[in-house]
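This part of the workshop introduces the protein records we will be handling. Each record describes a single protein and holds just a pair of labelled lines. Instead of coordinates, the fold is spelled out as a row of discrete tokens. To make this concrete, we reproduce a full record directly below:
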Amino acid sequence: AVGVQPAKNGGITLTTKKANGSNRPSSNKNEVTWGANKSGPKIYKGIANYTAKQSYRADLREAAVARASAIRLSQRPKKDLPDKKPRGLKAKAAAK
């Protein structure tokens, strides 16, 4: 199993399940964390390489990278919306 969650410090955490140790649920996980200052492509490449070397399914790999991308997008600071411009002659006259 492959899991991608946001890290506490603003980065991304990749969690994978070990093949052995199924009777020890607390120690059968591997976790890798990338910090907030690491660039997106480096994180995606790291996730792809890590899952490929562990012989995970390719469709899970693609889904993990897509989830990491969505998490990175959600961690960006939001821009302020610009002021609305008045439309029409009456609205422009009322705004003056």
About this structure: The longest helix spans residues 58-74. Residues 20 and 28 are 7 Å apart (CA to CA). Helices lie at 40-53, 58-74, 89-95. The mean pLDDT is 91.
